[in-house]
């Protein structure tokens, strides 16, 4: 069988250490019998084989590379393989049940993967993934840290985020120039944030797009209601606000906007 090699254009570095692969798979903790497992970018299938042993027919994989798809089809004939781009995939078309997502996310599209998963946050109950260490640390970062940003706030608003462990370069083929980190995201039990979630996303993204400015200046383009001018929270910068602060700010903007329209 022809060996699959990494495709640099996909930003993919294939894990070769089975012990680490088992550690990643065993990090899935919230998988109920009614839950399907979706592996993103299985590549040579080092996680896939362990996942099949543990979850059997509950496992699905999505892979964009045709050579990897052929390899996996031969290696695991009964495996449910979705050949395509995860970022263009219609998740609701393929799955109606809750999902647990796992994978070694390609470095160059990891943020895009998370934004897509956020759009399906009611269905995606858990995520265990390996990605560039810097990005993993950013997602797990808390307010008042330089690494704290848009993904930190949006993901932590809906998921409990845990940085699990670091993976060194030598266990990949080809070896990346940076270390990797494995994180676990578990869906919060609360169904919603208690504010307009679409507005919440807009406030967070707008605030961090000009993170050096105070919120009073960074949010000017949102046409804030006049009565919010006295809110002292606007004197802070985006990185100084916790997730609950952003929820409070969104709720305040929403309420004052509604009052202004009366």
Give the overall pLDDT as a whole number: 92
Supply the CATH architecture of the largest domain. Answer: 3-Layer(aba) Sandwich
By CATH reckoning, the class of the largest domain would read: Alpha Beta
N-end to C-end Cα span: 70 Å
Strand line-up across the major sheet: 4-3-2-5-6-9-7
Count of the separate structural domains: 2
Low-confidence stretches: 1-10
Structure summary, number of beta strands: 9
What structural class do the secondary elements suggest? Answer: alpha/beta
Radius of gyration: 20 Å
Share in helix: 25-40%
Percent of sequence in beta strands: 15-25%
Structure characterization notes:
With 262 residues, the protein is α/β, with parallel strands linked by helices. The chain folds into 2 domains: 180 residues, Rossmann fold (3-Layer(aba) Sandwich); 65 residues, Orthogonal Bundle (Helicase, Ruva Protein, domain 3), CATH 1.10.8. Helix content is 36%, strand content 19%. It contains 10 helices and 9 strands. It has a 7-stranded mixed sheet with strand order 4-3-2-5-6-9-7, with helices on both faces. Helix 1 crosses helix 2, helix 5 packs parallel to helix 7 and helix 8 packs across helix 10. The longest helix has 19 residues.
């Amino acid at each position: 069988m022809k060996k699959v090699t990494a495709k640099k254009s996909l930003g993919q570095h294939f894990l070769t250490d089975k012990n680490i692969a088992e550690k990643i798979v065993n990090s899935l903790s919230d998988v109920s019998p009614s839950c399907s497992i979706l592996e993103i970018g299985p590549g040579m299938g080092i996680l896939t084989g362990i996942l099949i042993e543990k979850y059997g027919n509950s496992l699905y994989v999505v892979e964009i590379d045709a050579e990897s798809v052929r390899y996996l089809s031969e290696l695991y004939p009964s495996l449910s393989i979705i050949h395509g781009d995860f970022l263009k995939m219609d998740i609701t078309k393929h799955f109606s049940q809750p999902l647990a997502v796992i994978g070694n996310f390609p470095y160059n599209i990891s943020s895009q993967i998370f934004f897509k998963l956020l759009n399906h946050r009611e269905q995606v109950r858990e995520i265990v993934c390996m990605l560039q260490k810097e990005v993993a640390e950013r997602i797990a970062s808390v307010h008042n840290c330089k690494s704290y940003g848009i993904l930190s706030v949006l993901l932590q608003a809906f998921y409990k985020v845990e940085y699990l462990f670091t993976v060194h370069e030598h266990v990949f083929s080809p070896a990346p120039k940076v270390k990797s980190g494995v994180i676990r995201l578990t869906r919060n039990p609360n169904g919603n944030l208690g504010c307009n979630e679409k507005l919440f996303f807009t406030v967070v993204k707008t605030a961090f797009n000009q993170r050096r400015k105070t919120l009073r200046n960074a949010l000017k383009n949102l046409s804030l209601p006049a009565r919010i001018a006295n809110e002292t929270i606007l004197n802070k910068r985006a990185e100084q606000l916790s997730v609950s602060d952003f929820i409070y700010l969104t709720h305040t903007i929403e309420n004052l906007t509604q009052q202004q329209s009366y």
